[in-house]
Amino acid sequence: TTTTTTKNSTEQQQQQQQEMSPSKFSSQESRRSKISSSDCVIQITGFHDKSAKDEIINCIQNLGLILSDGSDFDSNSTHIIVPNNKVRTLKTFAAALNHKWVVTQEWIKDSIKKGYLVSENNYGFLFKGEPYKQLRVAFSPDFQKKSPDLVKTVIYVVQTHGGGKIIDSITDSDWIVVSSDSQLTSSNQIYFDDLIGMIPHSYPISLQERNSPHKRIALDFSDSSTFSDSFEMSQINKK
């Protein structure tokens, strides 16, 4: 089977490298966050240890920050806090695509130690890219049949938060999401991992690691109810 990538994959990788470069994030770090405590709205995600979660919540409250504790992404949030830079959840996807800070818990802990919100630059990333904007994405029949949860994930990142559109027509699409064993042969087909991999994982990590082709992405859906009622195949545009 020939390894499949998006058309113009080289250009897309170069664009992602530019979007993930330090110049695309906040400028040279300063001691303090540019966001005031009164304007800071926090969500947390990916915490499975109750004691660790409770500790972070206490830190947030002690700093006088607003905690948004809903299970879905809050568009009013300014920061999403994760336990470590390996965590990927629906909230981190949505935060990245909505240009919100995604930071590790060390940001809050070090802010407690300093007594003020420290600069986020050493703790996470603020993505400026729009990898799905105005793109039309379709699903191959085999992908829809075999991976219904992944279909919902693609709808969530591409259409709900990414500025793209999910359509029925394969021939009219910019990308076709296919399963790894798909028999479809098209110059614009793409694997799920490559599509989702356009959303940054964490920063700073090596671009080589981030851009490794077909590396299985570990997704954590445990703290989100996003897919309970919100996503049906009716959300796919017919045009």
Q: What's the multimeric state?
A: single chain
- Biggest sheet, open or closed, and with what strands and sense? 5 strands, mixed
The counted number of beta strands is: 9
**Shape label:** elongated
Query: Could you list the spans in which at least 5 consecutive residues all have pLDDT below 50?
Result: 1-10, 16-29, 203-216, 225-239
- Number of DSSP helices? 8
Q: What is the helix content?
A: 25-40%
Q: H/E series, N to C?
A: HEHEEHEHEEHHEEEHH
Strand residue content: 5-15%
- SS class: alpha/beta
| Radius of gyration, CA atoms, in whole angstroms | 19 Å
Strand order of the largest sheet: 2-1-3-4-5
Q: Mean of residue pLDDT?
A: 80
**Distance N terminus to C terminus?**
31 Å
Report on this model:
The structure is a single chain. This protein has 239 residues and is of the alpha/beta class. It has eight helices and nine strands. The chain has helices spanning 9-19, 50-62, 90-97, 105-114, 141-146, 148-160, 192-196, 207-210; strands at 41-44, 66-67, 79-82, 101-104, 124-126, 136-139, 165-166, 175-178, 189-191. The strands form two sheets. The protein has a five-stranded mixed β-sheet with strand order 2-1-3-4-5, with helices on both faces. A four-stranded parallel β-sheet has the order 7-6-8-9. It starts with 8 loop residues before the first helix and ends in a 29-residue tail after the last helix.
